[in-house]
Specification:
The chain is an alpha+beta fold. Helices cover 37% and strands 15% of the residues.
Length: 451
């Protein structure tokens, strides 16, 4: 069936779709059906144009492009997915059914999305601005796996075995450095995955982090996960553990040391910096710690001050891991930081890019650790290093939990009220009818927290 694209195409700035009129001959009648061609980033679909419920057709004598529909006015309003009208002029002056066209457009778009392969989904995730550089690094390794092992790219084939194959590949092959900068999943050079470079074995902590990231982007409750977006069905990943690939060295025990003691955090709070930028980074870390042990820069970016009463404010932040907002009372530390910034939350903004701001924060925090003399030795991958060598925003969560446990004698369930951790094994009564996490109760728990 020969197809010829007619002139006068229009590109929508709202949807990244391209529309043009096409025609293809019906051999039984000798007439040509007029169709609307929709070109997606992932394929092409032709939809019959209807007039008064009938498909629009033309005669053989109208094949000359200069005679058949020489001027076509297409008025497509995609704003808020509202298709207004499509008008065809020059002797055919028929109004095309906008309702019909919209329904067809929606159905075809949905069908096409369902036909996306797995790496299209991973690629779209890669472009999500909410993801960290580390997560993008893991996504690039998925494309490396694609090129080396040629796994199934069908969305319905993503399951535990698929993920196990990916991690077996990583463990067997090791890695060399791959930059996340400028990577385009639609048009990348395969050669970047086949360079003649020495490969290193993944350290346990890195490998374990990769497992956590992959679970997060596939079947977790994170707002950006494939499952949460409705693109895949949830499957069980409980068996996906580090012990399947490496002999465990009790990583959790070593990471537990990555916290500041009460006297160290107080020293940090009162240290005087010549560099205002470093002072801001220090104050952000203390705010991040005592607002509830926030996870990293992205969680800190959701921190807000809210009015609680005529004289009091509270702090709220979005805990992405459990997909809920946590609200905590002010305490001696957070009140001091807010006072320093005239009632505002300190923040670092060097760019519109979240990753660049996070990187700037991490770099400044490392310098803070050096200048403040945080040189206590902690365990790092079966060796020992001073705190300032490994000091980063993720110490805030363990610092808060450790201070609450040792200094305030709070129980695990009480600490979880502030951090947003799920409290497992709690009775139906406590889960459904008792508000254990009220602001007043939390204020009592933190009453003895002072510097």
């Amino acid at each position: 069936m020969p197809k010829n694209v007619l002139p006068s195409s229009i590109k929508s700035t709202k949807s990244s779709l391209r529309y043009s009129l096409v025609r293809n001959r019906e051999s039984s009648t000798g007439l040509y059906a007029v169709k609307m061609r929709i070109t997606y980033p992932f394929g092409i679909t032709d939809i019959p144009v209807q007039v008064n419920g009938q498909g629009l057709k033309c005669r053989i004598g109208d094949l000359n492009d200069n005679r058949f529909i020489p001027s076509v006015e297409i008025n497509i309003m995609l704003q808020q997915i509202a298709l207004k009208a499509l008008t065809i002029a020059d002797g055919l002056s028929h109004k095309v059914s906008a309702t019909y066209f919209y329904e067809q457009l929606f159905l075809v778009k949905k069908k096409k999305e369902q036909q996306l392969n797995l790496f299209d989904l991973f690629g779209k995730l890669y472009d999500d601005p909410r993801l960290s550089v580390k997560t993008r690094g893991v996504l690039i390794r998925l494309f490396e796996f694609r090129e080396h092992c040629k796994p199934s790219e069908r969305v319905e084939d993503l399951n535990l075995q698929w993920l196990l194959s990916f991690f077996k590949f990583l463990h067997a092959r090791g890695y060399y450095f791959l930059s996340t900068k400028g990577f385009n999943y639609k048009d990348y050079d395969r050669a970047i995955f086949f360079r003649d470079k020495p490969r290193q074995q993944y350290m346990q902590q890195t490998f374990n982090k990769y497992i956590s990231v992959v679970k997060g982007i596939t079947v977790s409750n994170m707002p950006y996960s494939l499952y949460k977006k409705g693109l895949i069905k949830r499957f069980d990943v409980d068996e996906l553990k580090l012990s399947l690939f490496m002999k465990s060295k009790n990583l959790s025990g070593t990471r537990l040391q990555h916290n500041l003691r009460k006297e160290e955090i107080d020293h940090l709070l009162n240290f005087e910096f010549d560099d205002a930028d470093l002072a801001v980074a220090r104050d952000m870390f203390i705010m991040q710690t005592f607002s509830g042990g926030l996870r990293g820069f992205k969680e800190y970016s959701t921190l807000k001050l809210l009015k609680y009463s005529a004289t009091e404010q509270v702090l709220s932040f979005y805990q992405a891991k459990v997909d809920k907002t946590i609200m905590n009372p002010m305490n001696a530390y957070t009140l001091e930081i807010i006072r320093r910034y005239q009632g505002k939350i300190p923040n670092i903004t060097v760019s519109k890019n979240v990753d660049q701001n996070e990187q700037h924060y991490r770099e400044r925090l490392r310098k803070v650790g050096i200048l403040c003399g945080l040189d206590r030795m902690v365990s790092v991958d079966n060796s020992f290093q001073p705190i300032h060598d490994v000091f980063n925003p993720y110490w805030a969560r363990k610092t808060f939990g450790t201070i609450c446990y040792h200094h305030l004698n709070l129980r695990e369930s009480e600490i979880a009220l502030f951090t947003g951790h799920l409290i497992r094994g709690q009775s139906e009564l406590m889960n459904s009818y008792v508000e254990t996490g009220s602001i007043e109760h939390k204020k009592r728990l933190l009453a003895n927290l002072n510097f």
